[in-house]
Design brief:
globular; about 40% helix; about 750 residues; 4-stranded antiparallel β-sheet; alpha+beta; binds S-adenosylmethionine
Length: about 750
């Protein structure tokens, strides 16, 4: 799960924000009296633009923190336009949501992105005000709000932004409508381009050529509006053919897959029929409906066997279908692509393995096995619904702090960017909405769904809540993270942190005694069994890594307390014992930093004492706090070639986290039961391999196989194992093959 943690500045900011909210509350219902004239507003806007540019520069140098607040939540407008009454800016009341009303305004500046999108707008009476729109880049329209753009704000919310200024604030994308210049609502004074009397005479072919003009200029939304007007003007069959084809194409260009498919499906026969068929196949591919996409490609390739480009696309669609149906992936290629692409969005299908969503007894829905699976088996390989990244050369998230007054939490990072992507995707393709709105929202009251004024109603606050409970933080690849962790045991920060939503994986509940493990290659999540799991068993993962210091784990963010045996035991342990464990951890690490035999003996004694603090038998409660110290000391013995001591420490470490192992030196090495997929698990097996090499070569080979299995679980694939760890398994007489070890050596 997402590990964007609480920010220490959060409490202070929350208190300041709550004070500002109280002050605002006192103004509720007061008539709006602008504090600035229109000219002053424009002057101030220019000043903002300048400081905003400065701010962006400082942000990229990491010295400024941009704070965004989630105001008290409010639902989006559910009323269709015809049920709303037009009001003027002067009619608005402060700190009030004007339910049942709308304002029609025109932008008198180019919009500027300042956390949210800001523009100065005027109404027909030339009163001006700032308009603040949440959606980062307004991707739902042709790029941004140009000067002169006419906007309609449903149920506007007037609020104070500072001591000097008021804004109309729009948090829900569906509350704002972009009005085309030719719409009959547009007052004649605002019709700068083509006067009403002229467009009212237009025929379908005029709209078609105007649409094509926009299409050629890349103004796809404006183009769709013209084609729609054309379709309303009793077009001939031929005109209808072109209007539908080009509108489908324009929708395709802006990722509106539902609309694109609807239009391309309805194109009457004509010169563009083959292109429409091709468009349909491609749209179905984008909708991840690979079977239907393949059917369309089959028809197309039959009609045009010489079309090489169609054949290539068909091949890709078949590859996706195989992934979707069989779960067969080329993980090496995926790793390579993820390492070379930014953002690392991979074009692969989701495969749902032998698992199903069912109701649990007390934890809502959960994911269950439908058949017995073996350790390492692939359970799910899921493409992200949405995935937000920041580029290392332009880090932005570390300087963005999101304060949520509702949950009293703060988060740095990409959750705002992720929300923006998800909202955009749902707005553009409403058929995808349920994948998000079905996710756990901890009782958030969902507004009624369906289209209003032809667009889906999207509740920004609902999406934000769902993201906070269901998004995952992710490295660009778990392999990269794995190598980084093993090289730098201090876990120093500074790595890229992406975040995304994987709806199917979001069905999995947490347990510290997890039996499944997830890893990432770009935006693909790979979930594998971390142990043998019988049929009809609930899968669990870690939302937070079990704390090695043995502090009680805090899952308040997700609204539950973990009831696994480890957590129950920690809660039953006296606080002074937990504190002692933390001290002992630090002392052991310190002792092992020194190279004397005395320090090692002291570390041994401290580990024994730490072991004694666990009262309940290992068979009943795992001892996660022993893992790190034992792996550390095993590594030290291994480097000193004290193989017996190293082996003993590793075997103890593995037992502490639930492994049941038989044999080794005497008899074949067998893992009877796999334990938890801890960090450094691969290294543990490599140390064991080395300690067995001289005394039990067959068991050593088995340990090497277990190292590979541990890698498969932790990294998601085993193809890159040799490149990562190959050097460790070379024995003295074997030459190292060129290019084999691009990784590193334990
Ligand atoms: C990502 S969702 C998991 C799927 C969820 N159970 C559902 O019905 O959609 C996270 C939510 O599941 C529940 N949950 C997850 N792990 C839990 C656990 N160990 N104990 C109790 N509730 C848990 C909590 O309500 C948590 O906020």
């Amino acid at each position: 799960m997402d590990r964007f943690l609480q920010d220490p500045e959060g409490e202070k900011l929350l208190t300041e924000h709550n004070r500002a909210l109280e002050a605002a509350e006192a103004l509720r219902g007061t008539p709006f009296k602008p504090k600035m004239t229109r000219d002053e507003l424009l002057k101030q806007f220019k000043y903002w633009q300048r400081t905003n540019k400065e701010h962006s520069r400082r942000q990229s140098s990491g010295s400024a923190v941009h704070v965004s607040f989630a105001i008290p939540i409010y639902p989006p407008c559910l009323a269709p336009l015809e049920g709303l009454k037009k009001v003027m800016l002067k009619d608005l009341l402060l700190e009030t949501h004007h339910r049942g009303s709308y304002i029609l305004v025109r932008s008198i500046t180019q919009a500027e992105s300042m956390g949210a999108v800001m523009a100065i707008v005027e109404d027909e009476e030339k009163d001006a005000i700032s308009l603040r729109m949440l959606n980062e880049k307004l991707r739902c329209q042709d790029g941004c709000v140009d000067k002169g753009q006419i906007l309609l704000v449903k149920e506007p919310y007037l609020t104070s932004m500072s001591d000097t200024e008021y804004v109309v604030r729009v948090d829900h994308v569906s509350d704002i409508m972009f009005i085309p210049f030719f719409d009959e609502m547009v007052p004649s004074a605002w019709r700068e381009r083509i006067p009403e009397h002229e467009t009212s005479q237009w025929m379908a072919r005029d709209w078609l050529s105007m649409g094509n003009e926009y299409l050629n200029r890349g103004k796809f939304y404006s183009a769709t509006e013209c084609y729609s007007k054309g379709l309303e003007c009793s077009p001939t069959e031929e005109e209808k053919h072109y209007l539908l084809y080009y509108r489908g194409l324009a929708f395709f260009q802006v990722d509106e897959w539902d609309a694109s498919l609807r239009d391309l499906d309805a194109v009457p026969p004509g010169p563009k029929s083959d292109k429409a068929l091709r468009g349909k196949a491609q749209t179905l591919y984008r909708l991840r409906r690979f079977r239907e996409s393949c059917d369309q490609f089959t028809k197309l390739c039959k009609k045009n066997p010489e079309d090489v480009s169609a054949r290539n696309d068909f091949r890709e669609a078949i590859a996706r279908l195989v992934e979707q149906k069989k779960g067969i992936y080329n993980f090496s290629k995926m790793q390579e692509k993820a390492s070379k692409t930014h953002p690392p969005l991979l074009d692969h299908a989701t495969w749902i393995g032998p698992v199903t969503v069912s109701q649990t007894e007390s934890q809502g829905r959960g994911l269950f096995t439908t058949e017995a699976v073996k350790v390492g088996d692939l359970l799910v390989c899921e493409k992200a619904f949405a995935y937000a990244t920041e580029h290392h050369s332009r880090p932005r998230w570390s300087s963005t702090l999101h304060v949520n007054t509702e949950t009293r939490t703060t988060a740095r990072g990409g959750q705002l960017a992720l929300a923006s992507l998800i909202i955009e995707k749902i707005c553009k393709t409403p058929s995808l909405e349920a994948a998000i709105t079905n996710l756990h929202s901890n009782g958030f009251r969902q507004v009624s769904t369906g289209l209003v004024d032809g667009k889906p109603v999207v509740d920004t606050f609902q999406v934000a809540r769902i993201i906070s409970l269901n998004s995952f933080g992710s490295p660009t690849s778990s392999r990269g993270d794995h190598i980084h962790d093993a090289r730098d045991a201090s876990g120093s920060p500074g790595r890229l942190h992406n975040c995304g939503t994987w709806p199917y994986a979001s069905m999995i509940n947490h347990s510290c005694m997890s039996n499944a493990h997830y890893a990432f290659i770009g935006d693909m999540m790979i979930i594998r069994a971390a142990t043998d799991i019988p049929a009809n068993t609930e899968l669990t993962i870690w939302y937070l890594l079990p704390a090695p210091e043995n502090r009680p784990m805090d899952f308040r963010h997700w609204g539950f307390e973990c009831s696994c045996t480890i957590c129950v035991d920690i809660k039953a342990t006296e606080p002074h014992v937990l504190e002692m464990r933390v001290r002992q951890h630090a002392q052991i690490a310190m002792a092992l930093k020194k190279s004397s035999e005395y320090s090692r003996s002291r570390a041994e004694v401290l580990i024994d004492r730490l072991t004694e603090t666990y009262r309940r038998p290992l068979e009943q409660v795992l001892r996660l706090g022993l893992w790190e110290p034992l792996i550390l000391i095993a590594g030290v013995y291994d480097s000193l070639m004290q193989q017996d001591e190293a082996r003993e420490a590793v075997v103890q470490a593995l037992a502490a986290v639930g492994f049941v192992i038989e044999g080794g030196v005497e008899g074949p090495l067998v893992v009877k039961k796999w334990g938890l997929a801890m960090d450094n698990l691969v290294i543990a097996w490599i140390i064991l391999w080395r300690t067995l090499l001289g005394v039990a070569p067959e068991s050593a080979k088995q340990a090497a196989r277990y190292a590979r299995m541990a890698y498969l679980i932790c990294v998601g694939e085993e193809e890159s194992f040799d490149a990562t760890y190959g050097m460790n398994f070379k024995v003295a007489h074997e030459p190292v093959e060129e290019g084999e070890v691009e990784g590193w050596v334990v």
